Amino acid sequence: MIQTNSNHFSFKAAIYCRLSKDDEQKGESASIQNQKELLENYVKSRGWSIYDVYIDDGYTGLNTNRPSFQRLIRDIENKKVDIVITKDLSRLGRNYLQTGYYTENFFPKNNVRYIALNDGVDTFQENNEIVPFKNVLNEFYSRDVSKKMKSAYMTRARQGKFIGCLAPIGYRKDNDDPHKLVIDDETSWIVEKIFDLAFSGYGVQAIRRRLFEEKIPTPTWWNRKKGLRNKKTKLEMTVDGGEYWWDCTTLKEIIENPVYIGHIASQKVNYKFKVGWLSDKPKEEWIIVENTHEPIISEDIYNIANEKLKSRRRPFKNGEESIFAGIVKCPDCGKSLNLGRNKSKKREKLLTCNTYRRYGKSLCSQHRIYYDTLYEIVLKDIRKNAEIALKDEKEIIKALEKSREIDNEEEQKFIMDKIYEDQIRVEDLTKKIERLYDDWLDNKISESNFQKILEKSQKEQDYLNQRIEDNQKLIVKEDLEDINVKKWIELIKKHKDIKRLDKETLNELISKIYVHEKEVVNGEITQTIDIYYNFIGNTDTLQVFYNL
Fold first, then answer.
1. CA angle 53, 54, 60 (to 5 degrees)
2. Residue 273 pLDDT more than 50?
3. Within 363-392, where are the H helices?
4. How far is CA 59 from CA 19, 200, 270, 277, in A?
5. Spatial contact of 291 and 234, defined as CB atoms under 8 Å apart
């Protein structure tokens, strides 16, 4: 039936306008205001009524996850709209499959007429064969823009230029160069505070509580204060505006970010056209350019803070937490010693290798030590070293150089021996799997048993290969210039008269403690404990030098 002019006002038209960040470069012709005026004039000239104007400003056309577009779809489903009008097909979208679905399926199914004004598309007409080709061309355009943008970002990343929208807290963009970072005096103290807490052994949960208690504002709050952010998060809609509600993920990202030691890290995520963010890349695949700006944190503090954050563990299952958590390690497998209790009436606390607890003696031994025994050993060692720190600094440096040389040589040999042992075991497991496969082919073993043994062998192989890789990274001889004796002396001498240990003191002073397996020497059971201090490492030779 042909509609007459008297019925035109029965049509309710929905005007849809969209502008992405890429489209902004086209100038006024692509602007939201231009689109809106063009379409409003067209609707009025046809004598139709405007039901509503739907605007998505700053949203890509590669997907339909746009607030106003979704509102339009709901209104169509609720029969509120008869006609949808856009300036051209690309305003509706640039993904040809999704756009094709709406023009060829969704709109007709809901009795909605679609018009793309500048492309001459009208779904009530018969001459729309060109529409699918235009959709494909629109997607090709977006794909080409995506590739060019990625290439430009990669170039800037390799040049060590900062390419983020907002500078990380503690920094601001240089007034003369937006790709260069300079220290922000207003917020850099917050970064120092966070690293100081992480260095002292605090986990992100504890740091978050501390920042909240001390009323230290979040990065989001600072950006809003500076006029760099408008959109409010859910937390910012709370009573206090979310000013002090730090997020654990944010804190972890700050502590792990090399930007605070003067390096720019880029290309941290895998990104795919149309899909968007997919997954985090391992650090080995990041593009890191060193010494691009002034650091806020020293490299020593950064490394120790990250090592302690990485090695933290959950409390004992009854809520009891070891002050040695994340510090005490097994020298054979590298894993932590976990807190537990024996089965005696006294229920004494003891520490045991986590690998042994999980997998048994096939992968590691107990390395068991009573908690109170280790406590006394460490307390005594700290007192001895605090006494040494009060002596002549030049003599201490001389003794430490000798100590470091011996420690490096012994530790390198120990690590090499462990790598060799693990490699032999991996080869044995490979041969075992090959024999197992032959037995299965010859029907000497059932498929269920084959799968069970295979899974167990491959699990052990994966574990050993990871341990080999971790140990190979340790075979790097440390430069003696890295020893910061003054920092160690300043820290340790404060504890000459220490009476008791706590978690904060341990993390401030000690980087790791190795508990070796017990062995019988001359008929007596002995156990070696190696204590490594922050900045200088093991001090056994130092104590021998001073006859302590």
1. 150
2. no
3. 371-389
4. 6, 44, 21, 15
5. no
- Determine the length of the chain: 548
Amino acid at 400: L
What domain range is 17 assigned to? 5-145
Q: Are residues 179 and 139 part of one domain?
A: no
Q: What span, in angstroms and rounded, lies between the C-alpha atoms of 437 and 251?
A: 49
Residues 6+ apart with CB under 8 A from 10: 82
Q: What is the CATH number of the domain that holds 34?
A: 3.40.50.1390
3-state DSSP assignment of residue 336: strand
pLDDT at 67 over 50: yes
Domain count, the chain: 3
Query: What is the distance between the alpha carbons of residues 106 and 99, in angstroms, rounded to a whole number?
Result: 10
Q: Give the Å distances, CA to CA, from 145 to 169, 248, 268, 273, 493.
A: 31, 35, 21, 10, 61
Q: Give pLDDT tens digits for 478-490.
A: 444 444 677 888 8
> What are the pLDDT digits (tens) for 318-370?
455 688 888 899 988 888 888 888 776 677 889 999 888 877 777 789 999 99
- pTM of this prediction? 0.44
Q: For residue 103, what is the DSSP state?
A: I
| 423-466 per-position pLDDT tens digit | 888 888 888 888 877 777 777 888 777 778 888 888 888 888 88
Contact 527, 369 (CB under 8 A): yes
Determine the average pLDDT of the residues in 103-124: 84
